[in-house]
Amino acid sequence: MKKSIEVENNMTFEDAVKKIEDIIKEMENGRLPLEQSLERFEDGIKLVKLCNTKLDNYEKKITLVIEGKDGKLIEKEVEFND
Amino acid sequence: MAKALTVSQVNSYIKAIIAGDMILSDLWIQGEISNFKLHYSGHAYFTLKDSSGIIKSVMFSKRFSLLHFKPEDGMKVIARGNISVFERDGQYQFYVDSMQPDGAGALYLAYEQLKKKLEAEGLFDNKIKKKLPLIPKTVGVITSKTGSVIKDIINVTYRRFPDMKLQIYPVAVQGEGAAQQIADALNFINKSRSCDVVILARGGGSIEELWAFNEEITARAIASCQVPVVSAIGHETDYVISDFVADLRAPTPSAAAELVVPDKLGLKAYLKDLEVKILAIPKTNINLKRAEIDALKASHVFKRPFDRIVSERQFILNSCDKLVNLIRKNQEKGQTQLSLACAKLQGLSPLAILARGYNVAQKVDGEVISSVHDVDIGDKIKVILKDGVIISTVDTVIGGET
Q1: ipTM
Q2: What is the pLDDT of residues B25-68, one digit of tens each?
Q3: Model's pTM, two decimal places?
Q4: Are strands B44-50 and B27-38 parallel, antiparallel or unpaired?
Q5: Is residue B245 a contact partner of residue B228, using CB atoms and an 8 Å limit?
Q6: Do A82 and B151 touch (CB under 8 A)?
Q7: What is the C-alpha separation between B291 and B284, in angstroms, rounded?
Q8: In B, which residues are within 8 Å of A30 by CB distance?
Q9: Chain A residue at shortest CA distance from B166
Q10: Residue B137: closest CA among chain A residues belongs to which residue?
Q11: Which positions in chain B touch A19 (Cβ < 8 Å)?
């Protein structure tokens, strides 16, 4: 019975964290066959990596969304100094 | 002339008419308190007056105890209740259910009415409140471009998550058109999904200054926005309609940022924790399985494999012994029975009778003589004894007369 978790990039951070927690719970009770627990282990590591990527994949930016000349809203990057 | 009515009849007739009146059964009255008296029973008696009239009012203790302020003479209030007749005095009175100081009486009334209406529509239901994303990619902020609110939000955001993307929707947060601007921004976000969560914020102010957040157009825009909205309007003690409709209310704009923006270091630490746990698991698991194998190896079967054979052999030996004993017992029983039978047989033998000293008389031809009539005098007879035979002749026969 192979039921590996598909680690996809469009998985939300919440879901990924939840999956990791589930994997740990499942493996900690020690009832999984060894082979399967190794698969879960790999999934877990992949998910941790995915979460870290999601956390690091930010670019600091402040934008203002204001009305452009044509009346449509446009987004404009700004510097905020205080 | 019509029949005269009693005083009580008139009073109760008037009371019935007033009770049946739609307006008088639930109304708001604006006025100034005078002649305020708090009875020892807890009921409050006073009059409400304006420049040209008064109305007697009463507020029963149960209602009065719920008031958030202390009414006193000269105070302008706006009160809600119904008009009824006090028959004993023949006077109509205002029975007050709730009362507010009338700083901004009209606004307060509008606030209460809109709140009631939206609540009835289910716009405040916890069921329809959306969960905030754990890590939003972009945080939208609808607020004034100037002032401390936006600065506070930026500061808190970058303290918690140094590279978060903030998208600011500058709007007027008070005055003419403010509500429309706020609603436009919310509608734009709802349509474009340009951010994952919105903070709707404004600093403290009077009820008039916060009014844009009590308007229906704002409330409806929040309610229909599919992107989660956090409302942070005024000070901690200020409640506006936006707070009730929003998916989450924050006591202050800074608190809103705390709620919306995740603590990056905290999350990193948590992930590290999870990773450490996961990394430890294969080892733990293998150790667990190894311990299982050790336990198996330590079991009796593997340690003393011949125990079983020894015990089986013992069982067989025991069984053999039992069998031999049984056979022996049966044999003994048979022998005893045989000798008993022999003894019985012996007792019955004629030779045994002879041995005891008896003898048998026979004619010469061997016929046993059992009566004196069997012989005649002079007949030869044989007398058989235990050790031989005597041949003799019958001399005399005695007896036998019949």
Answers
A1: 0.80
A2: 999 999 999 999 999 999 999 999 999 999 999 999 999 988 76
A3: 0.57
A4: antiparallel
A5: no
A6: yes
A7: 10
A8: 284-285, 288
A9: A62
A10: A58
A11: none
